UniProtKB/TrEMBL annotation, chain A:
The keyword Plastid does not apply. This is ATP-binding cassette domain-containing protein. Keywords: ATP-binding, Nucleotide-binding, Transport. PROSITE patterns: ABC_TRANSPORTER_1, ABC_TRANSPORTER_2.
Automatic annotation (TrEMBL), chain B:
It comes from Kribbella antibiotica. The keyword Membrane applies. It is found in: Cell membrane. Its main location: membrane. The keyword ATP-binding applies. It is a peripheral membrane protein. Keywords: ATP-binding, Cell membrane, Membrane, Nucleotide-binding, Transport. InterPro entries: AAA+_ATPase, ABC_Ni/Peptide_Import, ABC_transporter-like_ATP-bd, ABC_transporter-like_CS, Oligopep_ABC_C, P-loop_NTPase. GO terms for cellular component: plasma membrane. This is ABC transporter ATP-binding protein. Residues 5-254 form the ABC transporter domain. Belongs to the ABC transporter superfamily.
Length: 322, 322
């Protein structure tokens, strides 16, 4: 049983093709990281899944139920299965409500019973915090409040959209630890949307990489970090600096050029071809289909990757087969 | 090695509605010729205020004491004329968000040219030619064409390259880069770090790099100063600092960042409990003591002074010393 099935998801905003055919599954209780840079459409995918947006095309199934085009009223019974945590806890908590009211609000709307004090305790806050206002709390505490609110309805899927990106590294560590603990203890599935690759390696079971509205590669964490097949994934991993001067100075980032194509007029063929160091003619005209290249579910959308997973590695200077 | 920039006992405090707030307390730093000094710390540690105070960029509500000498010339308390001739010419800045630092109604060429005409008295024609050279230096392709672009026509990475071109137009002795890549994606960041590295190598520019990102530090810095609550708590050569951190705050920061290959199943990120204090005055104590796992009685009773020498440390009970 999958907690989430997204099939050929499309979300256009007028001329902007933010998401253009994303297919993604999340098994019950597993953590999938959706990785990509700004403008890749990863947050839009998250918003379609919790139906803050109604997709232009494709389907979203939560625990088997198609919610793609349900009305607000029809959605209500499905709401408890999915929650979202946003990047900016200050902007997503109503400043006029007490912390207790904020955390308890989903219960009220769903007419369910639950315990706010327990929910606060579970995220490492003292129950007395319920009387406080969000502005009296620190950034890290606010993010804990958002997490408590998201989890109080016992969802089967948590969408976490850059939950630690606005936080300082020491606070980030505490929130990542908390998410890992809660996920292990409560067993919810999680779509972890982020641009922070080190956090991905820490939390995710599987990784899906997005570029300009489409998935270019997905597979188990160890696969993606160990033997990434898509040139973009390879470049992304090579570009993220590691906090170790000895290791970092031996690495050579693949420089892709700064000109990111626009989602209004995305390149023909493979959308990455304008920045890809190993693109060939076919890449400029033919859209690469996503293909399975391993028994572990490793999938990649690149013409240059063979069925057995061999292909170019742009991290080696010549871009030769690995 | 003689220092190009010497900061001694720099203290900065601000007048606010809630009284005086101390932002920087007796910071001493040295930057040698073509050296990259990274100042790291979390929000509110005083790293940006330190950077801004170096060339007198702070608002009037700031009180700045101490000494900042650039090639022996004292900048604290210097007159407007002196500062104006030094800023942009001897000390140049680049900031996090290039769009807010560029004027949207002038071409990038005229903005770089303005620096050259103001400081060096260059003619329009020379300024333009030199602007093209500078754009090439920072790795902008088709510089002859791009020089006539307006900022909105450029990507975020290109804009930051333009900012760097403007900053180094007069071949400054010191470049202060305040979170220069924080707003950029990692594949773009890698290119900008490369440009900064190139400047140091080709022009011999000394760089003060303000950042919260330990990966960026590991990539670019020669020496590191770790700041906490307005004070430098540890300073060392970059390899030495990452291999042998001695201040509990430094070890906390390093342990809080997820490392390659580490997953929550088998590893736990170090957390630093508590919050950064907001100080109205600097106490005669270690400001980290109440968050420190190994604080002694001395730590709350007396302020540890930063030791002199290659590896400076302000701590009564360093890590790894019992």
């Amino acid at each position: 049983m999958n907690a989430l099935e997204v099939e050929d998801l499309v979300m256009h905003f007028g001329p902007v093709r933010a998401v253009d055919g994303v297919t993604l599954r999340i098994r019950e209780g597993s953590v999938v990281a959706l990785v990509g840079e700004s403008g890749s459409g990863k947050s839009t995918v998250g918003r379609c899944i919790v139906r803050l947006l109604e997709p232009t095309g494709g389907t979203v199934r939560l625990a088997g139920a198609d919610i793609t085009h349900l009305s607000r009223r029809q959605l209500r019974p499905h709401r408890r299965y999915v929650s979202i945590v946003f990047q900016d806890p200050a902007g997503s908590l109503d400043p006029r409500l007490s912390v207790g009211d904020i955390v308890g609000e989903p219960l009220r709307l769903m007419r369910r019973k639950g315990n706010v004090a327990d929910a606060l305790r579970r995220v490492g806050l003292r129950p007395e915090v319920a009387q406080r206002s969000p502005h009296e709390l620190s950034g890290g505490q606010r993010q804990r409040v958002s997490i408590a609110r998201a989890l109080i309805s016992e969802p089967r899927l948590l969408v976490a959209d850059e939950p630690t990106s606005a936080l300082d590294v020491s606070v980030q560590a505490a929130v990542l630890n908390l998410l890992a603990d809660l996920q292990r203890d409560l067993g919810f599935a999680c779509l972890f949307i982020t641009h922070d690759l080190s956090a991905v390696e820490y939390l995710a079971d599987e990784v899906a990489v997005m570029y300009l509205g489409q998935l270019v590669e997905q597979g188990p964490r160890a696969r993606i970090f160990g033997t990434p097949a898509h040139p973009y994934t390879q470049a992304l991993l090579s570009a993220a600096p590691v906090p170790d001067p000895v290791a970092q100075r031996q690495r050579k980032p693949v420089l892709l050029g700064d000109d990111l194509p626009s989602a209004i007029d995305p390149p023909d063929g493979c959308r990455f071809h304008t920045r890809c160091p190993v693109a060939v003619d076919r890449c400029r005209t033919v859209v690469p289909e996503s293909r399975v290249i391993g028994s572990d579910g490793h999938q990649v959308a690149c013409h240059l990757v063979e069925a057995d997973g061999s292909g170019p590695d742009v991290r080696t200077s010549e871009g030769v087969a690995r | 090695m003689s220092a190009v920039l010497e900061v001694q006992d720099l203290s900065v405090s601000f007048r606010t509605e809630d009284g005086r707030i101390s932002a920087v307390d007796s910071v001493s730093l040295e930057v040698g010729a073509s050296e990259v000094l990274a100042i790291v710390g979390e929000s509110g540690c005083g790293k940006s205020v330190t950077a801004m105070s170096l060339a007198g960029l702070l608002p009037r509500s700031a009180r700045v004491d101490g000494s900042v000498r650039l090639d022996g010339v004292e900048l604290i308390g210097a007159g407007k004329r002196t500062l104006r001739s030094i800023r942009g010419r001897e000390i140049a800045y680049i900031f996090q968000e290039p769009m807010t630092s560029l004027n949207p109604v002038f071409t990038v060429g005229s903005q770089i040219g303005e620096v050259l005409r103001t400081h060096l008295g260059a003619s329009r024609r020379t300024a333009r030619a030199r602007s093209v050279e500078l754009l090439k230096l920072v790795g902008i392709p088709s510089a002859e064409r791009r020089v006539d672009d307006y900022p909105h026509q450029l990507s975020g990475g290109m804009r930051q390259r333009v900012m760097i071109a403007m900053a180094v137009a007069c071949d400054p002795k010191v470049l202060i880069a305040d979170e220069p890549t924080t707003a950029l994606d990692v594949t773009i960041q890698a290119g900008i770090l490369d440009v900064l590295r190139g400047l140091r190598e080709r022009l011999g520019t000394s760089i003060v790099l303000i950042t919260h990102d330990l990966g960026v530090v590991a990539d670019l810095a020669d020496r590191v100063a770790v700041m906490y609550a307005g004070r430098v708590v540890e300073t060392a050569e970059v390899h030495d600092l990452f291999a042998h951190p001695q201040h509990p705050y430094t070890t906390g920061l390093l342990g809080a960042s997820p490392a390659a290959g580490r997953h929550a199943d088998t590893h736990r990120l170090a957390e630093i409990p508590g919050l950064v204090p907001v100080l109205s005055e600097q106490p005669d104590a270690c400001t980290f003591a109440d968050r420190c796992g190994q604080a002694l009685n001395t730590c709350t009773a007396s302020q540890p002074q930063l030791t002199r020498g290659e590896h400076g440390l302000a701590c009564w009970n360093p890590v790894g010393v019992s």
